[in-house]
Amino acid sequence: MSYSKKILNLLLVTGGLIVLGGCMEDDTKKQSGSVVETKSVETKTDESNEEKIDVQKVPAVSLPEDFFQKNRANLLEQMEDGSILVLFSERLYGTVLENNEMNDKEKLGAARNFYYLTGIKDSESVLVIKKSDNTAKETVFVSDLDNQEVKKVSKIEDVRDREELQAELDAALKVSKILYVDSGSPMLLERISTEQQKHVEKQAEAQNLLIKNIFSVLGDLRSIKTAQEIEMIKSSIAATKEGIYSMMKTSKNGIEEGLLEETFLQTITEAGTERTSFDSIIAAGENALDAHYMENADAAPEGSLMVTDVGAEVGYYAADITRTFPANGTFSDRQKELYNIVLKAQEEVINKMKPGTDLAVLYETANNVLAEGLIQIGLIQDASEVSKYFTHGLFHPIGLDVHDVSGYQTTLEPGMVFAIEPGLYIPEEKIGIRIEDNVLVTEDGPTVLSKDIIKTVDKIEQFMKE
């Protein structure tokens, strides 16, 4: 999912202000970690003919029972003695998706930082952690939830009714020195709080507590994924692959962008996901020049390229993949030329993704490769001109949010997962191209989690003709 360079840099530093997606209840069966079930999706290849495409069900995956408990333990190490954390499950920041029924606001669930610490998907709960004498007292306040189920999921024994929260805070704030809250990124011009959180902050200020924003601490913790989190992301990618392949098989000259979006949504549902991780971008021809295009309402001009920036979500974990393919299944020579420049840039950036690499090196690599390619074909004369045709950010973290939170890291570390998305946008030729993959940084270097989704010219053309 692409944003302008200025916006994306802000997203990266602030930990992803775009809060997207929801959860699914996983009812698939797992056999040795492989997909074992398929369904069929009917796609129209012309007005009189229908082609059935087999859709593979995503593997059943889940987080370990002690996942959220361990996350709280890690956070507790970062909290000062004599402090209290008050974390609301209501979304404090982000963009609520509104363009399709799968992303109904009521289904988006809890703020991801809250979920990361509790496993609770409700949006009306509150987590309170008090640290005193280097020990923790954890309490979660809920409304209309089964207390025993909350205890089972969160591993928090003290579960109370939401109505008891204020009395608890009245007592706890009197004996605390520091109040931790989640106010979003410290890079924002204004701190973000719900009305309930503002009330707690005013109460703390009246008692001379120091108020600290826990956002960046949680960003640091969330930026390093566990093996189980990687499996969740891989499952989301597997469903996304099915949706992309269905779109490729459905595409033709004149195809409506909306029909391809519908095909993607139907396919990932058949694959076993409940929703997309963000509103899909299906951009034909010159629509692809707008990296933020979301109308998905036009027909593909003859011989045009389709930029499909899409992602499925499994258990709150997002995929974010972009594939560009010819609407009619065949690249023109010019389209191939430009496409291969973008592909080379992406491949060289990914090759640089080793522990210790400065994030700035990734931008430098992409710009150098794109500039070299554009100079060779005569589109620009100097490397400084590349920004005319590469107009958005190169990467962003991915995880519980499609633009995931991060702390202040400036170098790559094992366990980080990024979406890598170079592109070229040539207004005078009405051509937009973007290629995006999700990449895990390991001790041994990069692992492309979405490597099974085809992206070379030859493989795309062959697949679309089969």
TrEMBL record:
Comp. bias regions, Basic and acidic residues: 39-51
GO BP: any one term: proteolysis
Matches recorded under Pfam families: AMP_N, Peptidase_M24
Catalysed conversion reaction: Release of any N-terminal amino acid, including proline, that is linked to proline, even from a dipeptide or tripeptide
Region (Disordered): 28-51
Keywords: Hydrolase, Manganese, Metal-binding
Cofactor section: Mn(2+)
A GO MF term: manganese ion binding
EC number: 3.4.11.9
Aminopeptidase P N-terminal domain: residues covered: 63-190
Lineage: superkingdom: Bacteria
Enzyme class: hydrolase
Family under the similarity heading: Belongs to the peptidase M24B family.
Protein's UniProt name: Xaa-Pro aminopeptidase
